[in-house]
Amino acid sequence: MKEISVKQYINRLENMRGDGIYNEEKRIDLILEQKIQERYQDWKTYVKTIEHYLSSKYY
User: Fold this and answer.
1) What radius of gyration do the chain's Cα atoms show?
2) Cα 59 to chain center, whole Å?
3) What is the distance between the alpha carbons of residues 39 and 56, in angstroms, rounded to a whole number?
4) How many CB atoms lie within 10 A of CB 55?
5) DSSP state at residue 41
6) How far apart are the C-alpha atoms of 38 and 34, rounded to whole Å?
7) pLDDT of 1 higher than 70
8) At residue 23, what are phi and psi to the nearest 5 degrees?
9) Which pLDDT tens digit goes with each residue over 20-29?
10) What does the alpha-carbon distance between residue 55 and residue 5 come to, in Å, rounded to a whole number?
C-alpha cells in the first residue's frame, strides 16, 4: 500500500473515532454501517477502511 493511502486510511479511521462512529468494534454490523452511511457520502470507502484496519489488527 502506498504511503499516501496509509495516511488516508489513518485519517479516515481517526475521523470516525472522533465523530463517535467507530468505537473499536471487532466487526462491521448493520448499525455501524448505517452510522457510516448517514455521516459520509463516500461511505463505502469508510467501510473499506475499517475492513482493512480489522484485517491488519488480527493479522
Assistant:
1) 11
2) 17
3) 24
4) 9
5) T
6) 6
7) no
8) -125, 50
9) 999 999 999 9
10) 16
DSSP class of residue 23?
A: -
d(CA 26, CA 1): 23
All three cell numbers of 27: 466487526
Give the single-character DSSP code of 42.
Answer: T
pLDDT per residue as tens digits for the range 11-56: 999 999 999 999 999 999 999 999 999 999 999 999 999 999 999 8
For residues 5 and 35, the answer to whether their CB atoms sit within 8 Å is no
CA 18: distance to chain centroid? 12
| Residue in this structure with the C-alpha cell 465523530, named with its chain if needed | 19
